[in-house]
Amino acid sequence: MGSKANCVLLSVSLTLYRLIVEFHEPTASRLLSVARHAAGLMRLKFISRGFRFASGNLSKVMSFSEPPAKASLCCEETQEGAPPTYAMYEALKDSCQNNATYFQPDDSENGQRLYQGFMTLLDHIDTVWPLVDHVRKVAPQYDFDAKSPGNGYRSFVSVVDSCVLYGLKLSRQVSTGRDALLFRKGHFVKEVESCGQLLASLGTCLHHLHTLLTWAPPGELFPTEPHTPEELFAQADTINQYCFYGRCLGFQFLPSMRGILKGISICMAGFSEAYYCQGNLISSVWTGGQYLIDPEMRARRIVNISQSASIEFCKAFWFLAESEIMKRVPSLMSSTVAVNKLITIPPEPLTVTTAEGKETTVLPPTVHIGLQGLNVRLISVNKRVGMGSDRSSSIPPADGVLFHCHGGGFVAQSSKSHETYLRDWAAKLNVPILSVDYSLAPQAPFPRALEEVFYAYCWMLNNFKAIGTTGKRIVFAGDSAGANLVASCTLKILNSGLRRPEGLFLAYAPLNVSFVPSPARLLCLMDPILPFGFMMRCLKAYASPNSSGKGDKHGSQTAIMSATTPPDSNGFLKVSPSQEGISEGPSSFEEVSPSDLAELQAHKSGSERRKSSDTTISAASLQSEHTATGITPPEDKSQKDQESEASSTLVGETPLLEESEQTAEQKKRMKSRISEAATGFMGAMQSRLAYITGSNAIVRPTQEELSVRSNLDALIARSPSDEFIFSVPRDPYLSPYWADDRLLKMFPPVRILSVHLDPCLDDCVMFAKKLKKLGNTVSIEVLEGLPHGFLNFSLMAKEANEGSKLCIERIKQLLDLEQVAPSSENDL
């Protein structure tokens, strides 16, 4: 009898469900109300189970994946094994309608807010669907080719699809849990309202995309006629950026990246407290903890930081990757290398041979900050013949060498903070890597960094033996700002008639450093790594230094350094003079005599003198980085072990000890490194605490600084166009995309790697198209669900590590070009 009763009740519930779906909303609501009041508590329980059973079966038929939508597939009519994309939107509408019907009779405040939230979602879906459908249909016309789908229009379609998937998952969670005794209405109210705000903001972005489509013909991602970003943002309502950094933060990225990005955002918000609180440690720690549990507070803070904080804040936050703690991570977790040394190139003229066999003189950079020693980092998995003063190595020089420039928005970071992937590259490629620590903006704006990279390349041409290579094949590699620099350096090399590299590898490169609007650039309005305001300030500091002071005043430079950058001893924000661009010498090379050069080297500041002593290239010696700073290795170790331990690496050459003995040595070194890391952490924390609590000597904040702090705590919403208050020169050395076709045609083979969610994606696609049109060998590959700068997370996320491995494969192709088929122009 029980089973028959259950069958009858199930049949009744299914019939009622069909009636609710078939009738219009008021009738459906009345039927549901009658069913609730007429049935007893037990019968209602069985009916609810019947509803969930029916909904569960429907969900199985209309199942959708949890990860974000793939941009490479989002513009297809149908996906194999999945329903058409419109079904996903219909499923969300059905689920929202079901939940709205359920909560409409609920008279509680949260019940009515849930009802309104789901009804609002329904309205936004109806608004967004025709907009995204049009973009979905035309997006494939803007790809590089059929084998490499990717452009800003595709990216936005995938972002909207990811938002719909996120909303569908949320709505189904409410559907399955709303009858539970402990259902948290208050929690889901905020989640549903946040999702509605997110979809509304994406709808505004889609209006902007429709405007961009009218500004350029099919296939062109940049407008063909002059149009300004102000003109674009004036076409629709102001975009609400807060919803992108609150509860929905990271919805468009892979699940493995969401936690990382959320952690970075919390750190950014908390760091702003320490940066602006002027020593109030307890307040900053307490408020920083609130950002973990209050997503709305975090979103408000991040957006307002992006709009109000100065370039000095950006530099200070990104330089946390240079702290003593973070510096030890690569040596503990990355591949072991035998050589990891800093070399200081003295500022003296270089004589190099051109491609035609003629000799020419290259002067050291002098622009903006005068003569400075230039640091380059040499990383190699093996110690080869010719490296350093030790001649015991029998490993011959490698045929190839990788010339690398790091990213950091032109304003921050160094080769040290990019060791996380450079060590792995050196191990897998088995060639030396030479990474340039160029000077940073705003103290050293364009073209200082480019001139230093070009100077380092000329030095490398004369010193192949010292870095362990024959120089048979040279490949340039760079990520983000570093990719821009190696592309610009290639142009400078071609103009100078010097030997060009055998290949270029560019990762998520900004190749059009100007404010030409494009669909991908709108992605920075929701990017946790590269927020819109941060990107604007970095470009302003590097490309338009004369106007950067207008919007980025933060007191005098002395006050900035004393208030934001603690002494070297604290271990947190060490910034070298060469990185900050602090000039210690004359302003031009023409004024310097050989004796002046010697005096210049002898009278550098402490940090500069320390770095100069790392390696004297005239003596062709490669000292340890730590030895140069005064840390002496134990005396009972061999020279080889001293150099290995001092550079925080394990020996990567053929073992000289017995296996068991070597294992013991390695364990001993590991313990030593862990102990060092713990000691460094405690010392850094103590120094930082002393610095913050003893802040009486710090210069008091200016009135403008106090107003910035108040802005960070206020809910302000202004148009992103407010950031466009400066002009950028159309210089091909600044934006390689604008280079002359004659030079671009001479480019070596190029491999480009980007991500669908990168604000610089359109730069990469359009640059690749331009090279392809000129007949160059070029390929581009676009990865799913990863953020700009993913290489720095290769130790934290599996997909980021896979992306780094793909970089290695592409660089291998460039290092060994004779094995690449001639037809590989567009193949990967």
UniProtKB/TrEMBL annotation:
Residues 601-613, 634-643 have a biased composition (Basic and acidic residues). GO terms for molecular function: sterol ester esterase activity; triacylglycerol lipase activity. It holds the Pfam family HSL_N. Residues 546-672 are annotated as: Disordered. One of its GO terms (cellular component) is cytosol. The active site is at 480. GO terms for biological process: cholesterol metabolic process; triglyceride catabolic process. Residues 556-568, 614-630 have a biased composition (Polar residues). Residues 403-544, 730-791 form the Alpha/beta hydrolase fold-3 domain. Residues 88-387 form the Hormone-sensitive lipase N-terminal domain. This is Hormone-sensitive lipase. It comes from Manduca sexta.
